[in-house]
C-alpha cells in the first residue's frame, strides 16, 4: 500500500486489509512557533494605593535582591505585611527595570507550586508546555537559566511549609533520570533572583542563607498612624484615637486594615473611638471585631481572611508539624503576653529562693547539677519548641535574654483556637497550676519574687476555672494577690479582688473552709486601712469566731485574730472594750508564743498605748519596761528582716521616747526606714510610714525644723505615690501645717491646713473623723498665732461637726470643748471659758474618764478661775488636780511639776497681794510646757496583716 502523507490539517490511519502485525505511530502536529513576549510584571495583584512604605525595610529587600543569583526571604507573622512588601517591590522593579521579568507563584503546596510554573510557561509561551508528558518544571527551569531570555525575579509567596519542595513530583512518562525534588527546579542564575515570603524562618532555612532572611516586625506607631489615615481619609477622627487603636492592634497591618474596613462600612454608627472602646471590653468582643468579614473586606491585601483566621492557619501548621511547640504556645497564651519568663514554662523550683534566682537569670537555666540524659533531652526538646515559635515570629526574646513576649493578637487568637479545639480548659488549668506553684504568700523576703510574677498573677485572676480543685488554687492565687496589693498600699484594686475572691471561695468551699477564713481576714485588714472600721470589725469578728470554733481559744490563730479585733476596737475609740480583750489574752498568749515573740511585743505595746491614752501611766510604764527589756535581750537573735520585727521598731521607738531615750528612739526609726526602703523602695507606703514616724518623733521632741523638713519630703512622696487626695497624703499635709505654725510660718500654715481640710471635705465628707480633727487643728493654729476669734469660729465648726458625728458626750467632743475654753481665755472671755472647762469636767465624770487630758483640763479650769479672781476655787481645783495627778500619773510626772509651780506662784501672790501676768488672758497651751506632753503612741499600722492568715495560706494545697 502506498504511503499517504498527512499535513497539519489532516492526520490519521487508513488500512485497506491486513492479516499480519502492524505498528502504528501517531505523531502530534508540530507546534507552531509563537512570538516570544516582552518582559512584563506577571503578578496577580494591582498596586496598593494605601501602601505605606517602610523605607528602611524596602531598601533592605531591594539591596539584597539586587545581587547576582540572590535568594532572599521575607519572614514574619501572618498579616504583618510580607506580601504587600513584595508587591511593592515588584512594581518598583517594573518601574526601574522595565526589561526585567517578574514572576509570582503562590507556593503553599505542590499543587499551587505546579500551577504557578504552568502559568509562567504560558506567559512565556515555552515550546512543549502543552505536551502532557513534558516536565513543566524542567521547561521553566531551563528557560530561566538561559541568559538569552533576559533578567528575571521569581517571587514565591506564602511558603509556610517547604517540605513539599523536597518531594519528587509525578511527571508523566519521565524516567528515573528526571525524578528530582522540586527544590532542584529553583534555578541558580546570575541574571535572576528569587524572593520568598514565609511565616517561619524554618521553612526557608534550607533555601536561603541565614544572612538573607529579613524579619518583618509590626509597624512603628508613625507608619501605623499613616496607614490608618489613608484607610480612613473620609472619616473624621483624632490622631490620639488612631494611635491608641493602632497600639491596641499591635500595629499589625492586616489587623489595622481590617479595623479600618469595619469603621468605613459602619462609619455612621462606628467611630474610631467607639471601635477602640469595644475592642478593649473583652476577648469575646475582640473576636467578634477581628473575625468580621463582609463585602470587599481586604481585596487590596490579597486575602479575604481575617487576622484571626490568618493566625489560626499558623497554629494548625505548628500542631501538625511540631506538637510540642503547639503545647508550649498554648500554655504561654495565658501569661502576660509582654513578659513570659523562660523558667515559668519549664521548671518547678523546690524553694522560693531558687524561684527568685531562676526568674532573674540571664539565659535559660540548664540543670548543671542534675545533668541526666533524660533531663538533657527535655532541655533540648524545650529549646527546639521555643525555636519553632520564634521561627514563626509568634514570640520574640527580650533584649535582656530573660523572657519572651508575644503580640496581644497572637494571644487572643491562640485562646480562641484552643476553644475551637476544645483544649481551652485544659491549658487554663495548667496555667493556674503553674502560677499557684510559683506565687508565694506575700512576706517581706518574698517581695522581689511577688513583683516579678504579679503581671502573670493578674492574668490568672481573669481566668476563673470551673473545676473545684482548680477553683481552690485560683482562690489561693487571688488571696495572695490581694495580700500583695495590700502590702504595696494599692487598696483600690486590693478590695475589689479580695471581695470577689471571698465570694468565690465561700460559694465553692463553704464558710468554714480555711481559705474562706483567710480571705475574710484579708478583707477585714483592707477595710481597716481604708478607715472603714465598722466593716473591718464585722469581718474580723467573723474570723475570730471561726478560729475559736474550729481551733479553740488558746490556738495561735485565735489569739492573733483576737488581738487584731481589739486593735480595730482601739482605732474606733472603744478603749474599754479593746483593753478588756487584750488583758484577757495577755497571759495565754505569753504561754503559747513565749515572752520574747514579736507578737507579744505587739500585744504589750498596744495595751500600753491604751493605758497611756486612758491616763493609766503606771500600768503603761510597766508594760513598756517589759517590752524594752525583751527587746534588748532578743536584739541579737531576732530576725530583722521580718514584718513583725520591723513593725515593732515603731512602737519601741515611741516607748523609748516616752522614757526620755531620744537617741534610741531615733535609731530604731532609722533602722526601720532603711529596711523598708531596701525591701520595697523609697515610695512604698511602708517606707513612707517609717519616714512619717521619724517626723512625728521630731515633732514630739519639738525639733520643728527637722520635723518640717521630713514631713515635707513625706508629703511630696505620698502625693506622688498615693495621689494628692489619698487619706495618708492629706493627714501629712495637716502635720506639715502644724510644723509651719510652730516655725511661725503663719501664711504657709494656714494655706496648707485649709487646702487639706477642703480636700478632706471633698474626698471624705464634712463629717469624716479626720476632717473634723483637722478643723480642730486649724483652730489651734489660729490660736497659736494669736487669732483668738478665728480660732473660736473654727473650733465651733469642729464642735458642730463632732456633735453630728458622734454626739456631744463623747471623748473627742470633750477635746474640742477644752480647746474652745482656751480660745475664749485667749480673748479674755473668761466667763465662757470657765463654763466650758467646768462642762468638760462634768462630762468626764459622767463618761468615767480620768486621764492625763482630763487632768490638764482641770489645770486650765483652775487657771481660768484664778483669772476671774475666784482665788479660793482656783486653789481648790489645782490642789485637787495635783492629788489626782500623783495618784494616776506618778509623782515624778512633768504635769505635777506644772501644777505645783502654779500653786506656789499663786500662794506667793496671795501673800504679797500681787498678781502675775500669768493670770491674765492669753492663749494657754499646756502642751508647750513640756515636750513630753501630747505624746501619742502610733495607732495600729494600717499596713499590718493578721499573721495567722499568712500561716494558713501557706498550708492550702
From TrEMBL:
Name of the protein described by the UniProt record: NB-ARC domain-containing protein
Q: Which organism is it from?
A: Penicillium angulare
Q: What is the lineage of its organism?
A: Eukaryota, Fungi, Dikarya, Ascomycota, Pezizomycotina
